[in-house]
């Protein structure tokens, strides 16, 4: 598979992991737009939220549990954070593997994913 995130999951491409379990991987974004900019991705490949059928939808809840854990560990639950999921070309999704950006560590301006 040519998906860059699948290659990161498989260890073919290195990443700076911040969390991993049997369902998801979280790692630092290589082009951060905030002091804390982590990507959280499912290990199973889904192109976007539209590709997750009802039987697999619990992965989204699990991703949000992981996000809660990460921001609480860093104290961003007290100051605030942003979660972004881009879908499709008009949504500026660059990597066709569902992923969530978690941004924190400063007052966040409007974020244009298409920059």
TrEMBL record:
Q: Which domain of life is it from?
A: Bacteria
Against Pfam families, the record matches this protein to: DcpS_C
| All copies of domain HIT, residue ranges | 4-115
Motif (Histidine triad motif) positions are: 97-101
Name the SUPFAM superfamilies on file: HIT-like
CDD domains, A to Z: PKCI_related
What is the protein name given in its UniProt record? Histidine triad nucleotide-binding protein
Q: Which organism is it from?
A: Paeniclostridium hominis
